[in-house]
Amino acid sequence: MPAIALRRLTSCCDRLLKPGEIDDWSGAANGLQVENRGKVHRIAAAVDASVTTVRMAVEAEADLLLVHHGLFWGASQPWTGRRYELLRLLLDHDVAVYSSHLPLDVHPRLGNNARLCAALGFRQPRPFFLSRGAQLGLRVARRIQREELVTRLGVAVNGPVRLLPGGPALCRSIGVVTGGAGAELKQAAEEGVDTFITGEGPHWTFALAEDLGINVLYAGHYATETFGVRALAAHLSEKFRLPWVFLDHPTGL
Question: Which of 67, 72, 119, 192 is the Cys-Cys partner for 156 at CB 3.0 to 4.6 Å?
Fold first, then answer.
């Protein structure tokens, strides 16, 4: 089986995603989070880095795990219990971890938002939703019946969609921000969309959607963020001729 230097792969990811140019949360720690001995034979991709997904990567005989949500969101010490188990799995099986959060959300071709828009058949989306100094989402001008959009989104994410029907039955301006942007519903409305697609949001957004006159489609935080890691792994696989696998470990959230 061919092997590629880990440094070549991670350098390619850094050039592609430009993590140093994105003002992300500090816990994101975008980039290479755990090294291996320096070679990659097989790539695995997962939404979240956890004991379970690392075990799945080991079972898949992968030595590079690409994730959207990395290892360091909360306190990462002491390395005891499950944290110790995770570390032992990585080191014993020589698995490197590369994480990309907002840089993978916003990438114009491989990003979560871009790939979800493509899956919905939306062409030439424009930047949308200014946050942390960058346009984190995408928007399109598209006339589509609300119920048809719900159905199409369900097919795209292969799962249920929760509709908050606060806006028009005929959607004309649709914004997409994958993940957990429901709490920022007011900003989406202020930027002029009548329909907002995201992963999840709090209970009070139902009443707020009615007050603002905007439709909200919640398709799952996990489900809306499977697109980017898949696209990144497929890109690296094609470029470096390495096999890859997606590790599906849905949270239901």
Answer: 119
Q: Could you give the percent of the chain with pLDDT greater than 70?
A: 100
Q: How far apart are CA 13 and CA 102, in angstroms?
A: 13
Query: What is the residue-wise DSSP string for the chain?
Result: ---EEHHHHHHHHHHHH-GGGS---GGG--EEEE--SSEES-EEEEEE-SHHHHHHHHHTT-SEEEEEE-S-SS---S--HHHHHHHHHHHHTT-EEEE-SHHHHH-TTTSHHHHHHHHTT--S-EEEEEETTEEEEEEEEEEEEHHHHHHHHHHHHTS--EEEE-S-SEEEEEEEE-SS-GGGHHHHHHTT-SEEEES---TTHHHHHHHHT-EEEE--HHHHTSHHHHHHHHHHHHHHT--EEE-------
Chain-centre distance for alpha carbon 67: 8
Poorest-pLDDT segment among 21-25, 112-116, 161-165 = 21-25
The model's pLDDT over 141-194, given as tens digits with 9 standing for 90+, comes to: 999 999 999 999 999 999 999 999 999 999 999 999 999 999 999 999 999 999
Give the tokens for residue 101: 């959060």
Tell whether the model's pLDDT for residue 84 goes beyond 90. Answer: yes
In the numeric block, the tokens 């942007």 are attached to: 181
Residue 76 scores a pLDDT above 80: no
Domains and CATH numbers, the chain: 4-100+226-246 (3.40.1390.30), 106-224 (3.40.1390.30)
